[in-house]
Amino acid sequence: MPQNEHIELFQKRYGFRMDYQERQRKKKAREHKLQSKMAQKLTGIKGKIFAKKRYSEKVQLKRTIKAHEEKKTRQKDEGKTPEGALPAYLLDRESTSQAKLLSSMVKQKRKEKAGKWDVPLPKVRAQSEAEVFRVLKTGKSGRKGWKRLVTKVCFVGEGFTRKPPKYERFVRPMALRFKKAHVTHPELKATFCLPIVGVKKNPSSPMYTSLGVITKGTIIEVNVSELGLVTQGGKVVWGKYAQVTNNPENDGCINAILLV
Amino acid sequence: MTSQYNFKKIVIVPTSKDFIDIVLSKTQRKTPTVVHKQYKISRIRQFYMRKVKFAQQTFHDKLSQILTDFPKLDDIHPFYADLMNVLYDKDHYKLALGQINIALHLIDNVSKDYVRLLKYGDSLYRCKQLKKAALGRMATIMKRQAQSLQYLEQVRQHLSRLPSIDPNTRTLLICGFPNVGKSSFINKITRADVEVQPYAFTTKSLFVGHTDHRYLRWQVVDTPGILDHSLEDRNTIEMQAIAALAHLRAAILYVMDISEQCGQSIEQQVALFESIKPLFANKPLLVVLNKTDIIRLEELRPEQKSLIQRFIDDDIPVMEMSTISEEGVMNVKNEACERLLAHRIEVKIKSKKVEGVLNRLHVAMPKPRDGSDRPAFVPQKVIEKRLQKGPKEKKKTERDLEVELEDDYSLDLKKNYDLPADFKYDVIPEFWEGKNIADYIDPDIMAKLEELEREEELRIESGVYDKDEEEPDEEEKEIHRLADKIREKKAIIAIESRIGRSGGKPIIPRAGRKRERSVSRLRTEFEELGVDMSDKKGAHFARTTSRSASRPAIKKARADSTGRVRSSSRVTPRDESGVRPGEMKAKAKKMGRKAQGKMNQFGKAGEADRHIAVKMPQHLYSGKRGIGKTDRR
């Protein structure tokens, strides 16, 4: 025992009080009263934090109780017919499957017409120009309003230089330019921070695509050489598409799902 | 010099969850909490930026406090650095602190990025989301540090409980096999209550005790036992002992058990000694043979004796002791202390610092006047008397009585009273027949009182208590009178000023008041007091110059370096103070008029008046123009 553990040393030499164990037991038994007092007294943010903690504790308690209550019973085994098994009088019929085939072909054709692709977020809210651009007043006494400031996150390529300030119509501030995105692989469930190569399509308007504005649902191309993917032919895959899943201007980062 | 190797002042390292809770709740309490979406966007932005910055600052402060409080292994004494390496693993320690440092920088970067983003937030919702994201990011960074924080908290707790060993002071270090009696020895010479048990490795860490020798404080360090194997095989406990041996400049006491009760034979103990001998370089060494109450050195077998003899041949002092019977313990301690002291003095003399001290020391020996010897002289008779008396009888003290009688002893203070035996133990009452007994203690008390009173009367008559009051002479009377007058005048002034302060009457500003301090006023006041002011020649004041600068002065008034007349005691008006007359004055006046003109034109009270009386005056905002277009209004 180290030299300065006086309490432990005393306990080792002289032992405990005669009623020590009893007192410990009683103190523990009174703990629920303190808990309930706290739960009633605490208000505001502290109350919310306490309630959250208490809820998770209760969930754990209930789980353990339920686990104790589970009994080993034998359940009736419903003899399920395996799929595809047909009763004897239907054995020679095949019509249903064909119909199915046809209808899926029809669906495919419809999709192609509509231009809806198989992406994680098929429909997104369209962003109006008023949302994406803000009018920048210039000129004497601020009377000219032809310049626009982009209020959403955008991507400008490497080697991007602004047009001369007198002529640039769309101002993309440096604070809102992002180069990297957090891309999740849907099957691996792993997220990587990959550099963006370009903006492929912004669902709201082609003008946004050309400007490089990234909003929710935008398809971007990311550099996946970090993942080390290889094609069948042995070539290294270095670019893949991903779709943005969050509102980057609200979160300060671009989260995307890789389109495999 | 006591270096403060006291690691108790390290700040408590909270768990990662607690850390986040502390910072977030502090942010919530210490920053404004109310914002509405109809506020100006700049105000909303500022509100949220403040929260992000505050959280970052709090994280930064707490983490940098942790980083500065934990000792850097390179900055502390090598003994402590080695000890900490043994106990906590230097690499792990440095890594943990490095992780905290990284977290600190990451949090700073997060805050910078999000504050930059917040500048472009155009709605309350967006700003709020950005602030939430920023705080969330910082919290995630801290969550990842959970392991480091936990480790650092454990290190802190252990570190604060290390015994405070001063590596630079006089130290005795006790080492040897387990169970040889090191802890018993330290228990005997110091007040350290180290556990002593029959099993090996009872002492698992370093223990420190203090003892005195020659009016100096000595540190005694007890180490866990060391077994005889190579350095790589040693466990943490033994490594602590090795660290102490390696870095502390101390006198080493190598304790051996010659009765072999510890489980190791003398040969094994000597072998251990040989293997750790390199650690004893440059340190005074002492081999101590313990447990001599069981078997003495002389009773050993010759082979064992020869091993011990080798020590003596190597000039290493060997001493015997027995901690149970306390025989030889003090000798060992004294010998070790003496050797260490001699060693330290030797080292100090060899160092450079000693010259600085020796230069200032001078031991003066009185020169003998002549060659005759003057020994101490005791008269013959005294010597004879001393021999006659014999040894002094020791008076029996109460303590001796108590020891003798043990349980039957009771303290009786009355037994030495100078009274006849039957009165000694009587209880004395306080009152008797309505009189105080205390008044009659002394049979002559009334006579003594009367004598005292007579003496007192004589004294009063002779004037011992009279004050020396001389008649105040003329000068003193004059002074008294003046003093009274001054006091009266002061009181009047005080009352007048008090009256003057009350009342809401408007007072003329300073510049408008008449000249307060003038020669005429001086004259009248002093004449009131009775001073003769008719003598003008010897006076040091003169009539001041008149105010207007056009009339030439009758007498050249004294002016200072800037040319201003100093004897005029009027306060300069504001538009002339600091402005030289002439061109500067004209320019100042012009500027003043120019500035005032605009304000007058718009009917403004002053520069700060922003009130616009008519926002859209009709003549400007309506009607056609005589000439020109009405494109721009």
TrEMBL record, chain A:
Family recorded in the similarity comment: Belongs to the eukaryotic ribosomal protein eS8 family. Ribosome biogenesis protein NSA2 subfamily.
Gene3D superfamilies associated with the record: 2.40.10.310
UniProt entry tagged with the keyword Chloroplast: no
Biological process annotations from GO: ribosomal large subunit biogenesis; rRNA processing
Role, per record: Involved in the biogenesis of the 60S ribosomal subunit. May play a part in the quality control of pre-60S particles.
Comp. bias intervals (Basic and acidic residues): 62-81
Name the record gives this protein: Ribosome biogenesis protein NSA2 homolog
Region (Disordered): 62-85
Subunit and partners: Component of the pre-66S ribosomal particle.
UniProt keywords, alphabetically: Nucleus, Ribonucleoprotein, Ribosome biogenesis, rRNA processing
Listed PANTHER family: RIBOSOME BIOGENESIS PROTEIN NSA2 HOMOLOG
Segments traversing the membrane: none
Protein biosynthesis as UniProt keyword: no
Any Gene Ontology CC annotation: nucleolus
InterPro entries named in the record: NSA2_fam, Ribosomal_Se8/biogenesis_NSA2
Organism whose genome encodes this protein: Simocephalus serrulatus
Subcellular location(s) per record: Nucleus, Nucleolus
Lineage: superkingdom: Eukaryota
Automatic annotation (TrEMBL), chain B:
Chain intervals for the UniProt region annotation (Disordered): 537-633
GO function terms (MF aspect): GTP binding
Sorted UniProt keywords: GTP-binding, Nucleotide-binding, Nucleus, Ribosome biogenesis
GO cellular component, one term: nucleolus
Cell compartments where the protein resides: Nucleus, Nucleolus
Major localization class: nucleus
Biased composition (Basic residues): 587-596
Protein's UniProt name: Nucleolar GTP-binding protein 1
Record gene name: EOG090X02QX
